[in-house]
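name: query_chain
kind: protein
chains: 1
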Amino acid sequence: MDAELLRNVSIFSKLSVDELREFSALLLVREVKPRERIIEEGTPVKNFSIIMEGVIHIRRLAAKREMLLGRLGPGGFFGEINLFDPGVATASIYAMKPTRLAYIDYESFHKFMSGNTAIGYKIVTSMMTEMARRLRQTSARLVNTAYWSSAEGALPRAPLPEPPPPAAAPES
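structure:
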């Protein structure tokens, strides 16, 4: 894997050329056809993936229909949640165009970060920044959806408590 291709990936932007080379040596490459499901929601996830070429859609089941949560293109990544919190996929991932992924299994990623703590720190802090950005976007979309899906344009609020009666003026 060409280390310079990783330069455009936000989570690797703080790495030196040598650090990029060291990490990129661990990556494998996978070619994915258009409309191919890369990950199925609810199944175990074992790899962290980076989109080198192509476009993927992130979809989640809601009321028996898949809802589009997002799109990622070159430089985007997925599989980060299970890197830190092992479990099943929270969404399905589909290639929308011919897509080339660079990936690393979680065990190798953990070993690399444990053995290279300075590089691991740079990657993890950049990854947390990106995850926080995604969480903010998701929260904003959720608020927007709740606003537009309610009958009056906003969800009903709990009534405010009655203010206490004014204190009696002291008698002179």
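note: Strands lie at 28-32, 37-39, 47-53, 56-62, 65-72, 77-78, 92-95, 99-105.
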